[in-house]
Design brief:
Chain lengths: 164, 102, 321
Amino acid sequence: MNAEALAFYALAAMVLVGGGLVVQSRNLVHAAVSLVPTLLGVAGLYVLLHAEFVTAIQILIYVGAITVLILFVILLTEGATGLRVRQRNEQVPLALLVCGGLAVLLLGVLVRVPWGPAAGPLPPYNPGAVGRSFLMPYVLAFEVTSLVILASLVGAIVIARREE
Amino acid sequence: MIGLSHYLVVSTLLFALGLYGVLTRRNAVAILMGIELMLNAANVNFVAFTKFVDPTFVRGHVAALIVITLAACEAVVGLALVINAYRHLETVNVDQVDLMKG
Amino acid sequence: MVVLAAVVFTFLAVGGPLFLVLAERKISAWIQARVGPKHVGPHGLLQTVADTLKLLYKENIVPHRADVVLFSVAPILVAVAALLDFVVIPFAPGWVVRDLNVGILYFAAVSSLTVIGILTGGWASNNKYSLLGGLRSAAQMVSYELPLGFSLLVVATLTGTLSTVRIVEAQPYPAVAYPCVVVAALVFLVAATAEANRIPFDLPEAEAELVAGYFSEYTPMRFALFQLGEYGSLLASSALFTTLFLGGWKGPFAFPGLGPVGNGLVWFLGKTYAVVFFLMWVRWTYPRFRIDQLLNISWKLLLPVSMVNLLVAGLLVVGIR
């Protein structure tokens, strides 16, 4: 087992164990903090896939901003103190069935397809290639995403503002 | 040798975990955390396919970056709604928000 | 080369904050017309060693009904995030632990990990003052990450690369870009001071108001880890400022008999510690801002200024080409 395989299995374990803690931890703050190793594990998987730009953006935005936002909202609403509140609703057996069935179905299909070996190297300077893609073929997606960010920024401020 | 199917297995299991979180949790913020897990699973898929199938134009990375951006936007608006709902309804459990029922 | 750079990294990243604690006390004493620590070692140089030994002897207390796991993890997260910053800083020509091709983006990403440590530390202490301090500190650090990122983007636009080594090699900037670079440098300095929670932005730790803010419940070794994180973040920001705006290890003249590596190291350390001295000077001179003034400065002053700066830098690059 070479170093890449070892790293992959360690990161996959971090992602899946962290994800398990997120979805079934009774203490909400523990669940939110468990998002950190999960998302860092995903960032590690991106490094193994030679996607350095996406790794840095994942850490910067997901771990550094979205997790902080989730923690803020948990601390500002009553979630952090409700340790005796029941956290699971009555759909648990049905959810187990659905998720288990979906996972088995997808895994059964995905591991049987002969995907073939890797097809060529990635461009060596990731940010340059991504930047060129955003400015030439995909400029429309880029501009529309910027408008979505603006709309959600203004919308969130209006919705969450305290009415005087 | 780590191939494409290894990454797909990880992303499928992460997606299933996120879906379980969305379906079974009562707290609205916990549901949003499950949604973030599902979006990350999709991103892992995009980036894995870029490396193994179509590396020259990094289209998967572009898609993953757009998904990260939109996930941030959706988390922001969702959490603003949770805060507003908490102010008016005094609860963040989604099964207690039933003003329109009956 | 990587091994030697790793050794320098250890001494700079871990020994640096130890030295900085002493430097802070001596500089503050000098500004306040007194002498500072002078009994331990020659001129008080071994004071931090004595402090560390004292801290190791103290009892480790976990507050009643605090969350033990999160309480223990939080200072480790802060310290590790501050130390990981040093991976991309070039100390001398050819001496960098790892020349990542997304260098400055990695720096911004890793320094945003400290916010989570501070939030969990504030909450896990089971103390309302710690929680308030943690929330205020997290709000401040998240607000100031944006102008920091924009001034890093200005540097990336003007040099065309995100790698710190290539940024050092691309300096000095062409003279027509100086206004952009000066504005970006000032914005970076203000934002880095706010990121490191130092006066004039240290309301989260204000001694008179919040006891010690988010680390009031932390006893010795964990407190030492928080301090390592704070001073390490200060040193890393100064080192990055030197790399991006002051020319890194380049110097106008070469010292005789040192060779290119030693020469570069002397210039780099000199410039970094000059920036650190300037930041400490600012700390002991100015009063602190209120939380609403603090957030107003970030969102209403620094953010528009840095956005316009980035626009001008982009136009300049197109014009120069």
